[in-house]
Design goal:
Layout (H helix, E strand, L loop, with lengths): L2 E2 L7 E2 L2 E3 L1 H12 L3 H12 L6 E3 L3 H13 L5 H12 L5 E3 L12 E3 L3 H10 L1
Parallel strand pairs: 3-4, 5-6
Antiparallel strand pairs: 1-2
Organism: Ancylobacter tetraedralis
Pfam families: PIN
InterPro entries: PIN-like_dom_sf (IPR029060), PIN_dom (IPR002716)
Length: 125
Amino acid sequence: MVLQRAGRSNLPIASVTSELTLAELLVKPIRDRDEALVAAYNNLLAGGGEAVATIPISLDILRDAARILAHHKGLKLPDAIHVATAERASCTQILSSDKRLQSGTRLPVWDTHGADLAAFIEMMS
């Protein structure tokens, strides 16, 4: 789904994520045997829907992630894959509750908890 910015601009807003997100999100509902949530995550990220574009983890993304890790020792490989995916997809913002991501990118990282998310939503509307 491509969203339009309300008011200030008619530029489209697209949401993208790495395939890795699906594995990260599925752990808890699988552990909790929450099949409805497993299905919801699968539909959102692997169902071919329009809400979020799921970017495959390519060799180029892995090479970029290695470069990011080489320069930012505080990051883990999954963090670097997410940053590399965002950069390859020409994202302008990252939404994440993982504060470590900020050290691996020049992109603004908006915290999905608390005031950052509210400020992000306000900025985009």
